[in-house]
Amino acid sequence: MGKKQNVTFSDIAEYTHFSKTTISRYFNNPDSLTLENQQIISDALEKLNYKENKVARILANGKTEFIGVIVPDLYYHYYSEMLNQILSSYEKFGYKFLVFIGNEKEEVERQYIQELMAYKIEGLIILSHTIPSKELASLQIPVVTIEREDQYVSSVNTDNYMGGFQATSLLARHNCDILIHINSPTPKHIPSYGRIQGFNDLCEEKQLRHDIYIREMGHSYESTYKMLVPIVDELDQRYHGLKKGIFISNDTLANVLLNIIIRKHGTLPDDYLIIGFDNSPISREAIIPISTIGQQIDVIANEAVSLLVDQMNERKKRRPVISDKPVHKTITPILIRRETTEGHTLKRDTL
Predict the structure, then answer these.
(1) Contact at 8 Å (CB) between 96 and 67?
(2) How far is CA 337 from the centre of its chain?
(3) Is the dihedral of CA 240, 244, 250, 251 positive or negative?
(4) Of 77, 144, 238, 292, whose CB has the highest number of CB atoms within 10 Å?
(5) What is the mean pLDDT of the chain?
(6) Which pLDDT does position 62 carry in this prediction?
(7) Cβ–Cβ < 8 Å for 189, 132
(8) How far from the centroid of its chain's Cα atoms is residue 179's Cα?
């Protein structure tokens, strides 16, 4: 007789001499069984070559093993790399992901969340900024945010203030005559505001000549290019002949800025130093590799999924202890020196 193709709960019960109810509890509420009995059933599943029917399990306990993810866009390389790292966590945690791109549209993101809830997601990771954390906390599922307002939900963020301080310190050590920070409008309650604050505090403390450009950069190459061209023209005119150290808010913008300068001058002039923020792949793949503040994107992604899984697992226990106090984790950034601050000049004849 050939080997049975579909092993049922009845087969497992017969093999272990447990009831089908006990077998069901193993799959749906394992915490209700002793560790010894869990091990007996686990060994039986391996012996019987049991293949779980995922659809049947979802119908039985409502647990889909799906996590929802909402990102603002995929233009900024930080978000695409963060999403890549989150999706890669499947091998470690075994959860699948349903991803939506919000494009900074609040009502659209609310529709996405309703869609995700209809798919019975077990948790939610949010990188977009549109929906207040108080509203997210009312969803009755675990929520973890990354680099956004997080008063009412758990979060994982970079120490942005330290990163801003590190970037500015590097430019100061290179004896720049003028330090420049370029950023988008950022409310003070958003973690990334720390980049602006770190820059400003160090300049004030050391009495360094500095300037800050705050512009709405948009979410496309065309919009960022349009905003950065006049800034480069102004820097060339206002600070002609001075050594300019530019700290720009992320590596996507740093790459666009670098391209504008090279197109204008045929090279990266010796009086321009550039450092970005995040250490997404574009920073090392740029025509001149860009110095940056590494956010340790892989660490942030792992911590965010791990924190969410811990909270989801707690809810599956027979007597869950659900805290209403959010957990906030902060990841230390790492200064990464590359050619845009370390003296490399791209010659015109190499272009």
Answers:
(1) yes
(2) 22
(3) positive
(4) 292
(5) 90
(6) 54
(7) no
(8) 28
